[in-house]
Amino acid sequence: MTYTDAFLYPRRIHIAPVGYEIDRVVLPLLRMEADLVYLISEQTMVDESDKVYVEKIREFLNEQKRIIGIEEIQTDFVGRDLYEILRIYRDIIGKESGNQIFINVSTGTKIHAIAGMMACMIFRSERIPVIPYYVVPEQYENRPLEGMPLSTGCKEIMGLPGYRIERPPEELVRVLAIIRETKKKYGYISKKMLINELRKAGILLISGPVRHENIARYRALDRKYIQPLTEWRFITVEKEGSQARIEVTREGENVLAFLG
What we know:
- By secondary structure, the chain is α/β, with parallel strands linked by helices.
- It folds into 2 domains: 3-159, Rossmann fold (3-Layer(aba) Sandwich); 170-259, Arc Repressor Mutant, subunit A.
- It has helices at residues 3-8, 23-31, 51-62, 82-95, 110-123, 170-186, 191-200, 213-231, 250-259, and strands at 12-18, 36-41, 69-74, 100-104, 130-136, 139-140, 151-152, 156-159, 235-240, 243-248.
- It has a 6-stranded mixed β-sheet with strand order 3-2-1-4-5-8. Strands 6-7 form a two-stranded antiparallel sheet. The chain has a two-stranded antiparallel sheet with strand order 9-10.
- Strand 1, helix 2 (23-31) and strand 2 form a beta-alpha-beta unit.
- The protein is elongated and about 70 Å long.
């Protein structure tokens, strides 16, 4: 398939976390005519017997007349890190950006559901459609036997609203990463140190000769990066003597976990 063909005939890509259910994963793939599914699996980190759910999903799909590609990505069950899952979703969405992308937010854990909705809000655009959906099963099992799914059937597939969440510009995230790495290296980072590190990274604060060049650099640093990063609440700036030391906030660390 050529690039033009891929643009004219986008594939239907699904992202489906695997919990203790089968039908809610596989039946929407058939009804929505999926071409490829990314199975987000984390059970293998806890109990080898839990692999049965992924294996049953594979067996079911392999028995169908329609060929559906399968990619499995394993995550850390114990950590259940929201931002790690967001990073995985971001990577998949970036890889499949020329296709239609659907995220199943009804399977896996609650963290997977939250990450799925956030990914749709953060990474969707006019160029990259990312659509969340929720699967209503025919029946819930109140006390399923060991190895049996928590629900069966697929009563309805509900499309969910795809609102947008503004995300920080890539250049701001890059500078935020430089701040964090410099802090790790030296134990602290001042504005003067940041100016030097930006220069090393090829990021220019001023484009040509100006009067009072040193002052101009500090003003440009504040305007272009310090103030926006502070408004995003990714950094704080604290006065310590004659220097202003920069600290990355928890919000800043979180955004670097999946955008950095």
